[in-house]
Design brief:
Immunoglobulin-like, 2 domains, eight-stranded mixed beta sheet, five-stranded antiparallel beta sheet, globular
Length: 578
């Protein structure tokens, strides 16, 4: 009897083990999904399915959204390129890393952070990319292959621009970003280059067979400035038909706190209006979106016609939005919805490791953040989570877009203490000095009415404050080595031009690499010379100055050597033996 029981036990164990191993083998046989990771630069909600502007033409964005989950309440981690992309690619929030602004270098602040392609490569993926994914660098060691070549650290292929610039918008002063310009080009897509070459390279990657699952990143640069694209993309938008932004209201700043009013109006918008170029600029932005959408279409078609169409996750996102006059503002950098809200579309095929049923086409209105993309992709691919990631995986919402979701979405502004917080109905903008704005998005989608001072909304404010961050990592100052270098001008007729200062103060670092002491002299606006400091050989001096300032360099005996002209941002001025 005992032996019989023993034999039965062995048989049951063997059956159990066989069943277990069979299940294990089946699980192992499920191939890891490929990932197509598509970024568009500076794209707000001017997408057909998001309804941001009635004239926008985005058939390819629209068709992708109808095959996946469209997140209508997605927000960027930060309202400028560098901190947003750093957060997306590291999975770490700006308030944890201290990367808040464009003038910081990711690798200076986070020298050892592993980014998405490196993580996937470590887990057996082929990681390749093209175009702008990080902020004007590639991070060569993190990729298996890149176009242009990764070792150049320049993510941009050749791109056609007008021979003489500015073409349309005259520079209003040294404060103005030189790329703020637009206009049609007499060129084909191929001759234009840029995003055409990026998407052509990506399409070729999709058409070939791979021996490994792939992580393929496609960085479409438009609609980033300058808004130069082939003329055919301007033609659907006749200038006389151009409509102003839906969110624009002339008196929109009246109920803002001082910090909001300071961040609201900027001279770009007033300059564009003064030059009579508002509708032309909107036309340029719409044309650039239309072009970017056409480039996206090349990639989607290549995927659909490829052997990878049934096992590739597609994720499309934009790093932040863009103001075109809303809140009297132009560009980005704000906590308002025009700037923080971004397109986000995720399509997951069936039989995917982490989501076997795949995604069903749908719309999700829950507040989400691009910070969640890295952990979401790991979970979808059946890879282990990274404990340092700050965002929650979006997998519950990909399974059910209406699932309960208690997470707010937080966007961090560049002063290292201000943020914008989004829930499904409410938006709180909290400034570092304690000033606030509160908006009911359900009834006020353009944030025209600030409710923060109204007594009946104080309980709502308190609840939102409890959801917000209370601690912020310090903001490291960029190293001198990372600063752009000012041009050295030899003197003509022994005299430097007068300063034409226009703009806010920032630092310029003067470095004396000559073998003698020099003097730093500010040239006043009437041409006078004002001594500011002596600088010994091998030393450096940080001085606050303004755009358009001219700095004359003389030797110890007041003999002029040359001068620097300050541009629109912090820089270094290198004095060497000339």
């Amino acid at each position: 009897m005992y032996n019989q029981q023993k034999i039965c036990s062995k048989v049951l164990f063997i059956c159990f083990l066989g069943s277990f191993l069979s299940g294990f083998t089946m699980a192992e046989e499920i191939p890891r999904p490929n990932i197509l990771f598509i970024a568009m630069d500076d794209l707000n909600d001017w997408v057909g399915v998001l309804g941001g502007h009635p004239q926008t033409i985005t058939p390819n964005l629209d068709r992708l959204s109808k095959s996946g989950v469209l997140f209508t309440n997605a927000h960027c981690p930060a309202p400028e390129c560098n901190p947003s992309r750093t957060s997306i690619f590291t999975g770490r929030s700006p308030h944890r890393t201290g990367v808040y602004a464009n003038n910081q270098k990711m690798r200076e602040v986070l020298p050892d952070a592993e980014i998405i392609p490196k993580t996937f490569s470590r887990h057996g993926y082929y990681s390749a990319g093209s175009g702008k994914m990080l902020h004007y660098f590639i991070d060569a060691s993190s990729w298996d292959e890149y176009f242009p070549k990764a070792e150049t650290e320049n993510p941009f292929p050749r791109t056609l621009y007008p021979e003489k610039r500015p073409l349309t918008l005259p520079r209003g002063g040294p404060w103005q970003y030189v790329e703020t310009d637009w206009g049609p080009l007499q060129a084909t897509d191929k001759a234009f280059g840029g995003d055409y070459l990026v998407t052509e390279w990506i399409a070729k990657q999709l058409t070939r067979r791979h021996s490994q699952p792939f992580f393929l990143a496609c960085g479409i640069y438009r609609p980033h400035e300058p808004w130069f694209v082939p003329q055919k993309y301007f033609e659907p938008f006749p200038l006389e038909s151009i409509q102003l932004p839906l969110g624009y209201r002339a008196d929109d700043l009246e109920d803002l706190p001082p910090e909001g009013k300071k961040r609201g109006p900027n001279r770009y918008f007033s300059h564009i209006q003064k030059e009579g170029q508002w509708k032309q600029a909107i036309q340029g932005y719409l044309a650039s979106i239309h072009f970017a959408d056409a480039m996206l279409g090349k990639v989607l078609t290549a995927l659909e016609e490829s052997p990878h169409r049934e096992n590739t996750i597609v994720v499309l996102w934009s790093d932040h939005g863009w103001h075109l006059g809303e809140k009297e503002h132009w560009q980005k950098y704000t906590g308002w919805r025009a700037c923080t809200r971004v397109p986000l579309i995720v399509r997951v095929p069936a039989k995917t490791t982490g989501l076997s049923e795949g995604t069903s086409p749908g719309v999700c209105n829950r507040p989400v953040n691009l910070l969640s993309l890295f952990p979401t992709l790991l979970e979808l691919s059946g890879l282990p989570p990274e404990p340092h990631h700050d965002g929650p995986s979006l997998l519950p919402l990909l399974k059910n877009p209406s699932a309960d979701w208690l997470q707010p979405s937080v966007t961090y502004l560049n002063d290292g203490g201000s943020y914008a917080l989004s829930t499904e109905r409410w938006r709180l903008i909290h400034y570092a000095n304690g000033e606030e704005e509160l908006y009911d998005i359900q009834n006020d989608p353009y944030e025209w009415t600030n409710l923060a001072k109204e007594a009946s909304y104080q309980d709502t404010l308190d609840e939102l404050r409890r959801l917000g961050p209370t601690q912020f990592a310090p903001k490291p100052r960029p190293s001198v080595a990372s600063l752009p270098e000012l041009t050295w001008y030899p003197l003509e007729n022994g005299k430097a031009p007068p300063s034409k200062i226009d703009g806010s103060r920032f630092d310029v670092v003067f470095l004396n690499r000559a073998n003698k002491q020099v003097q730093l002299n500010w040239v006043t606006q009437d041409g006078g010379i004002k001594w500011m400091a002596n600088l010994a050989p091998g030393r450096q001096r940080r001085i606050q100055t303004r755009p358009g300032a001219v700095w004359l360099i003389t030797d110890a005996s007041d003999t002029p050597l040359g001068y620097f002209k300050v541009g629109d941002r912090s820089s270094k001025a290198v004095i060497s033996e000339r």
